[in-house]
Design a protein that fits this description.
327 residues, alpha+beta, Nucleotidyltransferase, domain 5, four-stranded mixed beta sheet, elongated
Length: 327
């Protein structure tokens, strides 16, 4: 039976284990001479192979105090790469600080870990077009524009709510959730018109909405100098639709591809959904009734507030060099 070897410290013992392994000794034989288990010997060799580490791995401990510079380093790191773990943040600091200290600091300043929101990936060409468009519209007559768009409301759409820490809110949902689709148009003088539609909003359906609902209303509210503004959806840019616009309304100023965050009517949809879902509609009929009721409550001031942001939106596109803006 082999006698147990004595070592001055753990680093010397681990170096001997690695050396014996490199000589071809079996883990079981090394374990018997060091008094360790086979698993411990394997861990020593693994730590050396991956990190060239022979000393004992330092535990988290209490760690030092998080300095002002360390706090700034954490914020800068997360602004650049928000997906870093607490451990990787601790490892990047020059002074030893515990993960718990970092976690407490982030909680104190209001940083929380959350699921990322998807944003469109814009090409360089799209960004360049957004910049050119923004520069040409810094002093545009936004008070004469009519913004129009479509929106879909799903029955049983998951909503935000409050619950105790460590618990979740469960909301029943079917495999297929019905939907109600609406179109709408707004101006700086208030809402133009809103309506429910079924099926796909193709070119023919959209031209019908323009002809029967939007055009006459817009002329009545804004006069002869109103300007239609729409995104690049196929129904909006179809040749027949563009011919209709040319023959019935003033020239549209154009809208850049990948127009993320530029149209204020997108913000209106978000606010409208919050109000509609606050009624907890449990059937499609109730959902549609809530939508129709809440669109009646869209005010002139609400539209004016949205239009007042256009100058800043345009400036932000230039400032971010064409990136998608978070408004």
């Amino acid at each position: 039976m082999s006698s147990k070897r004595l070592f001055k410290n753990i680093e010397e013992r681990n170096a001997w284990i690695v050396h014996q392994t490199q000589k071809g000794k079996l883990n079981a034989e090394i374990a018997s001479k060091t008094g360790l288990s086979v698993r411990q010997v394997q861990n020593v060799n693994s730590a050396y192979r991956q990190f060239r580490r022979l000393q004992r791995k330092k535990g988290p401990g209490r760690g030092g105090t998080l300095t002002k510079g360390g706090k700034q380093s954490i914020r800068n790191a997360l602004k650049k790469t928000p997906y870093k773990s607490i451990k990787s943040l601790a490892a990047s600091l020059p002074d030893e600080v515990s993960s718990r200290s970092i976690s407490r600091y982030l909680k104190k300043v209001g940083w929380t870990r959350k699921k990322a929101t998807r944003t469109p990936k814009l090409t360089s060409r799209q960004k360049d077009r957004r910049i050119d468009w923004a520069k040409n519209h810094r002093h545009f007559r936004w008070n004469q524009v009519v913004f129009s768009d479509e929106c879909t409301f799903y029955l049983n759409e998951c909503r935000y709510g409050w619950s105790p820490s460590g618990t979740r809110i469960e909301q029943e949902s079917s495999v297929y959730n019905g939907k109600v689709q609406i179109w709408g148009a707004i101006s700086s003088k208030g809402p133009i018109t809103f309506g429910v539609y079924g099926g796909d909003m193709n070119g023919g359906a959209y031209r019908g909405v323009l002809d029967e609902e939007i055009v006459d209303q817009a002329y009545g509210i804004l006069g002869d100098n109103w300007i239609p503004q729409q995104d690049g959806a196929k129904a909006h840019t179809a040749k027949a639709t563009m011919n209709f616009l040319k023959g019935n309304v003033p020239d549209a100023p154009g809208w850049p591809a990948g127009s993320c965050g530029l149209s204020p009517i997108g913000d209106l949809w978000g606010a409208l959904k919050q109000r509609v879902y606050s009624h907890n509609p449990d059937t499609l009929e109730k959902l549609q009734m809530c939508i129709e009721e809440e669109t009646e409550h869209i005010t002139k001031k609400q539209c004016q507030d949205l239009f007042s942001t256009m100058k800043d939106r345009v400036a932000m596109v230039i400032e971010t060099e064409g990136e998608a803006i978070d408004w």
